Amino acid sequence: MSPFVIVLLLFAGLSEAAGRILPLVARRPGMSRTFVAGLLLPGGLVESAVFALWPLTAWTLAKLVLSPPLQGGGLAWTPGLVAPLVLAAVLAFPLLGPLLHLLLFVGVGAGLADPLAAATGLGWWAAAGCVAVSGAGLGIAVEAVRRLVVRLSATEALEPIA
Length: 162
Prior knowledge:
By secondary structure, this protein is mostly helical. The protein is about 80% helix and about 0% strand. The protein is built from five helices and no strands.
């Protein structure tokens, strides 16, 4: 990946994390800025890592679907593919439209399906299925971890201080 693509992925991850964290901050006005930054930076890095893993996961799934093993380095982000992802992450803010956010992610996935289909020889629909399943799997995994962290944080907050 080029440095420009890495910067775009980091920006998309930070924006996605901000879209998830800032509504929580708005409901709790007494939160300190350092605590919010402490949530935002790791959350942004995790979201960036998930975005970076999406093409690799789709490529791996396509390898499992095809009977002859695939050769080559796999599918990677390009600036043209990652730019709509950055826009989708910016629109992650709930007040700006979750439906539009979802539609942009579907558009990004469709954009990933084209190079995957060309690189693997799969049909477009099969490649789109690999991209969709990998994206949904990554999203479910991150949501499970997010809920676990919230649950553990709530447990720590309820413990009595001795």
